[in-house]
Description:
This protein is an alpha/beta fold. Helices cover about 45% and strands about 10% of the residues. It is built from 13 helices and five strands.
Amino acid sequence: MSDSVLLLRRVRDRSSGAGDAAPSGPVGGPAPVPSPRRKRGRRRRFYPEHRVYRARCSFLDLSEEQVLRRYRLDKAAIAGLCRELGADLESLTGRSHALPVAVKVTSALTFLASGSFQTATRDSTGISQSAMSNCLAQFLEALQRRAARFITFPTPVRAAAATGAFPGVLGLVGSMHVALRAPSENEPAYRNAGNYHSMNMQVVCDGTGTITNVVAKFPGSCPNAAVLENSALARLLEGARPDGAWLLGDRSYPLKPWLMTPIAAPRGAAEERYNTLHHQALSALRRTLALLRLRFGCLDKGRGCLQYAPQKVCQIFLACCILHNIALRRRMPLELPDGGGTTEATEPEPPVPAPPGHISSEARAVRARIVQQVKDGLG
């Protein structure tokens, strides 16, 4: 064998041996073994061959009394809600086990009526926690889009033509505090005079208890007078200035030409009679707020505060007001317990007088005319 062939063979053996040797690490040590790369991807969920679904109870299978106790509405009203909200609650998926509209509606009604948390409510509805949360969110949004169909403020002409003990009542205005968990942002603004976090909801109703206007967006520390002053209702009445029609409010509101409040220091039988009639007229508002808490346990602070953000708490309250009007239209039975008809025990504190400010001579003249009407009635 020639020397050139032997030299080529040695070079080839040397290069092949160097390739098979393990690379040396730092300072001549062994090289680190690279860890196998973890595959990234969505894990496939294992489904058993025969899946077992929770049993769902349809409201049609219950008696009328059971439906009223569980959902606070009768069967016809629930069926009407399903038809009304069906376009928004219909599932877009083609899966065979998508939640029907009736299940979404009754699941949301169960939560609003019971006041229990979603984890407890889902056991009676037969759906999961995530599905329960989605049902409630879809129901609230669908109902909020239709609020104008169920909550309508009357025209001054209609109100002025109405008869009653107190003349020309356009509506009764008051507030209701709905407790919620402490928000993560601007927490002090939600702490009310009762030292708990809440939303200050403004409600206007008529003498029958039908809710005609709702303002649900102000935190608990906001005074009643400020809520009304910054509402669209105040701007409407300031511009319209209805003649012979006005709202009635307690002493937490300022006297306006369109808002009659009690007389702080009545002098004479006529002014005392004015205050008596004023208090009697506001009893319809107190009863309405008490019925809201009784009908919808989620609004009752005694059952715990709502574990939601302020925006969703406002949606929940608006939905309860809409359902309250539906129940009144259908004359669904719901009586207050003995001694009911007032909400003063559950409010942060008795109505705080409105801060002193300028009261227009027009407002004083309007109230003086009403006092004179009361005096003429006494004579």
